[in-house]
Design a protein that fits this description.
homodimer, 578 residues, alpha/beta, eight-stranded mixed β-sheet, six-stranded mixed β-sheet, globular
Chain lengths: 578, 578
């Protein structure tokens, strides 16, 4: 791997900068798809309207060697299963209206992210791990808010660190009153890092814990239980063992009764049809080819081959083969794989290929049948996929050429990109007769897929320019050629054949030559204008601080708290405040 | 210094973690007060309602050795003068309603922060430098919005990087049309870091530049000029040389005409009466004693000795001796000195001492005479001081004891703190007859000093608990003893004599033992609940990313872009995206 040579002259980065776990060794290639029959850490049981999700971590089931997952602590592998659980409950179980998350161990619900795993992990691995786990917790909140599947944390034992943060993602938190079980965020006092999956933000901004109490809580390693935990808002209730099952059942039934979720037959998330080669990953409708020398991935998304089914029954019949879902599943998997397994490929170039009318027909159907649970789930999944792109630390470039079909939900890929390049006319030396590219805005671009800041990508694009936003809204449904798209402000640059290829080549070469860190910070700042939310705070403020802390010697240096954890020695700190 | 030993075993931190400039050497002790007769870099000229502030940097005038301030580039010393300019214009020049900021060199307005200075600086120095410069730019915006002093950037030459960010802090940006002068943010492409003083945020969130254009701009080292700069919103106008003076004059006159600022006689900001000893810094009304072994500063603020003057004329007569201004000037200076010169003192403990009634009388006067320009300026300065505390990377603890006067504006010091400890009753072994401490809320706590997020500290405290906020509002004006304050949620803990001293000792010892980095990140997340603003984005999202980038080898390692700048070699990057 070309990365090895970098290890040597970047000696400052002996810790925290290897590609995978254990700096200097090749990172493992991670698969993000699994299924219940392969779970090692979670049990999923469905009983009518209520599902119970039980965490019982296989201590020997770590994703990579070097640590044991004791006390229901987790690593990326455990979280990949949880992501699968959340997705399957939404797609395969329309009848489930409440989800109880609990633990399979006695007195310990979950001890959070495994510390030995963190201690041996590279900086990049830690950061990527936190991002994925954050996305999954946001998905739990999205299921509660948008799918009528209310998640309830039934803490049958102590929830520490990431364990409590799992609970924070649930709508209700119930803690067993057994005289010993607590909720806690011991990261600051014990590990010298922040709770990495939204804990600080959710404590003050979601649970509305007073900030001085939040300060006490986040510096008190043993945490709180009982009246204090309830009074401060850290949990909703504590319940004695004898009433436990009844109270959890009551809360689940109550949440289910309030749900508007309707549906009888689920859609099985059958295994992805994915082909991985040395320099390519392909799925039906999605192909990615990797140019390692150029540090670039070219991603092509194909439009549908057929018109959409006539009605909801037909859509349900297609299931995972319904084009919007098939495309989204493939892209979601691709994004996760590229982020984790292909760190050097810093630029992702999106193209589309296909029949715009067929894209528009599917796009319209998502709104026409929006009341149908399955169609709703597909739309929400597209939303989550696009949010993943928004927080992806890669430069995203859309290339709009003849034969493309950037319309509606596929146009979102372009709007999510950092830049959009559109060809005027045709490539004279390829196919001078080709129909020039056109893009089409639909109502989907104006609200179906809000970003983390609550704005559509269209509204984000024209933030502060209401007249331009209104003008763009007036173009909904109209095919816009390069000049029209440029005039409407929907593309970065419209160039004719003579300039296009040269310009694009230079742009991509230049981009690939810039500091990957500076680009990551720049993109994270540019992509989210205007209002902020819990989500943008977690991915912006919290994650940025955590990344800084992760790379500081006080956490990850040879004598830092993370590295010394479990050795009996506390971290040795340089006490100067920065 | 005790810090030296840390240099050795934190070998990861050979770059970026020394205490001052040039890692391993003792940091210089920095003074933050100056006056026009001592300026080396700025010229201040007042002509009626319009002031002109000209940047003409003394190349040999760097604050520390090792670099030349060529091309109007700046270091902390240049920015300390600018801060003084901003403050003096507000207090000494009530007649000034528009401020033109321009440059004294030909074709180069300002090249931004000096790169050699940054390259040789420790991580802590870079971070602290950016924080102070950000605060000064926010102060320029505050002068425009709240003081009726509209700042206009008259870019008579290229404004690059921090030079353009200076302009972004102004209400209007006018660029000379001389065929060569541009505005640019070359940090990402040339230095591998972010523009550090709000550039990315202000470009998209203040100037509303479309995000893909912002992306082009921030990666194009030579920047833009002319029509593009105007059309994209990077500047408000370009003006040919022949029309320059007239157009700038016209804009300044127009801004002045729209100002509601009224006042004829200014208040001279005479030199601070400050006494610096080995372990203490004292001013009239403010004393700080440093316990280096405990890594703590104890700060005591004295209330006024006399009732306030009877009217505005009397207030103006007192000038810098007007108690609210005297206290604020002293605390502002102290905060800046401690942040820069005393990095190891991680906990600041605030106490007050004095007559609550006299504090309340001054507090009430700030509102009664709010329409008077000088009283308004004092209130705005208190606001800015408190905002400095909010973004200070130190743990803040308020201790409320008999003899204290935490009321109104002084209570804000407690509300800005991470925790508030209040003694119930008296210290039996000191003065058993002492009158127990009481705190008093005033209308000031409910809106005079909004935080960066736009909320009062009271509203931030009760975010999500409207009933508690309303209840607290109902207590305005009432002395609240420890129990009442605790019940109202205004203090973290109310303890009697038997427990108080032990608890406080343990709390401060524990705090001093924790990771300074984790505390900084935790506090930055807890202090700003609810809404976000340009300011909170700059200090939260942008600064956190910048801090991360600053410490990464791609910027600050031996082969990083910052270190190699000017060597003819580009930075050698590890291209893996994190």
């Amino acid at each position: 791997m070309t990365t090895v040579q970098h290890e040597e002259h970047h000696q400052v980065a002996t810790v925290g900068d290897g590609g995978g776990l254990q700096p200097g060794t090749a990172p493992p290639e991670v698969d993000f798809d699994t299924s219940p029959d392969r779970y090692r850490h979670w049990e999923l049981a469905v009983d009518g309207e209520v599902a119970t999700v039980t965490l019982r971590v296989d201590e020997q089931g770590g994703l990579v060697p070097g640590y044991e997952l004791k006390m229901n602590s987790y690593d990326l592998g455990v979280d990949i299963e949880l992501y699968d659980v959340v997705q399957r409950l939404r797609f395969e179980h329309p009848e489930v209206k409440a989800v109880v998350m609990t633990g399979g161990l006695d007195r310990m619900f979950c001890a959070g992210a495994n510390i030995r795993m963190l201690a041996q992990s590279s900086h990049a691995w830690k950061v990527n791990f936190c991002k994925f786990t954050n996305e999954t917790r946001n998905g739990i909140e999205d299921a509660t808010e948008a799918s009528g599947q209310t998640w309830i944390a039934a803490l049958n034992g102590t929830a520490a660190g990431g364990g409590y943060e799992l609970a924070l993602a649930c709508e209700e938190i119930v803690l067993i009153d057994d005289g010993s079980s607590t909720v806690s965020l011991p990261e600051v006092p014990l590990l010298g890092v922040l709770p990495g999956t939204g804990g600080l933000t959710r404590v003050v901004d979601k649970r509305h814990v007073r900030k001085d109490r939040a300060d006490l809580f986040a510096t008190k390693s043993e945490g709180y239980r009982g009246d204090t935990a309830v009074q401060w808002g850290l949990v909703d209730a504590t319940v004695p063992k004898r009433d436990w099952d009844q109270e959890i059942g009551r809360r689940a039934a109550q949440a289910a009764a309030g749900s508007s979720r309707r549906g009888d037959r689920g859609v099985q998330l059958t295994p992805l049809d994915r082909r991985v080669e040395q320099d390519a990953i392909s799925y039906p409708y999605v192909t990615a080819t990797m140019d390692r020398a150029a540090r670039r991935v070219d991603i092509t998304v194909d439009g549908p081959a057929q018109p959409p089914p006539a009605d909801a029954a037909g859509v349900l019949e297609q299931g995972v083969d319904y084009w919007p879902l098939a495309v989204t599943r493939a892209l979601d998997d691709l994004v996760l794989r590229l982020r984790t397994n292909e760190q050097e490929l810093g630029t992702w170039v999106f193209r589309t290929r296909g029949d715009t009318e067929l894209v528009l027909a599917h796009d319209a159907q998502l709104r026409e049948l929006a009341d149908h649970w399955f169609v709703n789930e597909v739309t929400l999944f597209v939303k989550r996929l696009l949010k993943r792109l928004d927080v992806t630390s890669r430069s995203l470039v859309a290339v709009i050429e003849p034969g493309s079909c950037f319309a509606g939900l596929l146009l979102e890929l372009a709007l999510a990109s950092d830049r959009q390049y559109m060809l005027e006319g045709a490539y004279e030396d390829v196919d001078p007769e080709a129909v020039p590219a056109a893009i089409v805005l639909t109502a989907a671009n104006d609200g179906s897929f809000p970003m983390g800041n609550g704005l559509s990508r269209l509204a984000s694009r024209f933030w502060g320019h209401d007249a331009d936003l209104d003008a763009a809204r007036g173009l909904v449904g109209e095919p816009l050629d390069a000049r029209a798209a440029d005039e409407a402000g929907l593309v970065t640059m419209a160039l004719d054949d003579i300039d296009f290829s040269d310009e694009l080549r230079i742009v991509l070469e230049e981009r690939a030559s810039l500091s990957p860190d500076a680009l990551t910070g720049m993109e994270a700042n540019h992509r989210f204008v205007g209002p902020e939310s819990l989500e943008t705070k977690i991915f912006g403020r919290l994650s940025a601080w955590q990344n800084w802390i992760f790379i500081r010697p006080n956490a990850s240096g040879p004598d830092g708290a993370l590295r010394r954890f479990g050795s009996g020695q506390r971290g040795s700190y340089d006490y100067r405040r920065v």
